[in-house]
Amino acid sequence: MIPGGGQPNMQQLLQQAQKMQQDLARAQQELAATEVDGQAGGGLVRATVTGSGELRGLVIDPKAVDPKDTETLADLIVAAVQAANDNAQQLQQAKLGPLAQGMGGLPGLGF
Known about the structure:
Blueprint: H1 10-33, E1 35-40, E2 45-50, E3 55-60, H2 70-103
Antiparallel strand pairs: 1-2, 2-3
Helix pairs in contact: 1-2
């Protein structure tokens, strides 16, 4: 219900919901097309993921490869991918956060 006792304008609510849906779809497409990087070991291992979290690339400096110590290399890979995913999450919050806040602005829906 709208403050003051009036009924919400259903057509206006529908238009707002459709616009938010379009904005959300556009933001998700942008996230899927945007790449962010993460690194570990001072840049010895670099991972690239999309804004939606898909791993796209992994670069390992030959200096990081020690056949006797593959555990450290594995740790560096995990750390680089996690750093890239953290950057992707920050990008998601930047792109989608304002849209989620906009959902609270639909009068009459009680959000």
